[in-house]
Amino acid sequence: MYVGGNHATRSFTNCLGSINMVAWAEHYKNANWPMVIYLGYCHALAFLSLFYFSTAKWQTLVFTLVISQFSGLGITGGVHRLWAHKSYKAHGIVRFFLMLCNAMANQGTIYHWSRDHRVHHKFSETDADPHNAMRGMFFAHMGWLLVKKDAKVIEAGRKINCDDLLEDWVVVLQKKLNPWGNLFMSFMFPMLVSTYFWQEHWAHGILIAGFFRYVFILHCTWLVNSAAHFYGQTPYDPKINPTENAIVAFFAMGEGWHNWHHVFPYDYAASEFGVASQYNPTKLFIDGCAKLGLVTDRKRALNAWEAKKAKMPNAPVSELKAKSA
């Protein structure tokens, strides 16, 4: 693999912006108050849940870990790689399962998440990018949700074609049930399971398996927008800011190989190498479904990378064939 230089070139000041230059009055006026209140409420309850861990039953803790993985998969293997990028095709059973996982993650509907993500790729790090990293690390991480959308983002969203999403009954079903379906799967479902199956107190179920898991997965997802646009390497295209970040890949189930993904967004693996070389449980899930005949047409960019690399000066011979399982 051709490896470029380190990408950790932005200073801490550039990432967070100068405190002295923060336009607080403008931010207050431009605040998306319903989202500010909602996310503030969820974070407060997630913090409160920390005081309940010591008295929770072990089944609740294991259950929280398991559904955290399902929640993440609903984003990575579901709305991101399947619906936003159409990098593979899945049987209705897989799509329905991923929709439920996505609802548990509760990051908006598949339709709206996919639309915004397509805008992000088409207008990456411009004023039309929903979470434009050029506006600072906090904005890219979660600040973009706390303020009203830029007019250019709204206009770009109107121009993005998402008709394919409305042809999928799974996407339409979730959209019709919005927001109650997502809220039920994210908060009520974990509470009901833990109280019914092992008689956990309802507060432990909704706080730990509900709000703590939810907020944790939110930040794991947001790391791809923030940290993976600031820290790491850029071997596939040194001219863009998205990076290869192993830490983000760990927390985001393989989504941290972000320089590759922005160069080849249609690649279902969202990484160059196989799971033995790059942490990517989402790819492992998709490959497992493929072996069962539930996933087809997995797109890869290996040949495209070989062609691109041949045009890059001083690019060494790749070890691709040995590592791309």
From TrEMBL:
It is a multi-pass membrane protein. Its cofactor is Fe(2+). Keywords: Fatty acid biosynthesis, Fatty acid metabolism, Iron, Lipid biosynthesis, Lipid metabolism, Membrane, Oxidoreductase, Transmembrane, Transmembrane helix. It comes from the Eukaryota. The histidine box domains are involved in binding the catalytic metal ions. It comes from Thraustotheca clavata. InterPro entries: Acyl-CoA_DS (IPR015876), FA_desaturase_dom (IPR005804). This is Acyl-CoA desaturase. One of its GO terms (cellular component) is endoplasmic reticulum membrane. One of its GO terms (biological process) is unsaturated fatty acid biosynthetic process. Its main location: membrane. One of its GO terms (molecular function) is iron ion binding. The chain crosses the membrane at residues 35-53, 60-80, 92-113, 180-198, 204-224. It is found in: Membrane. Belongs to the fatty acid desaturase type 1 family. Residues 57-266 form the Fatty acid desaturase domain.
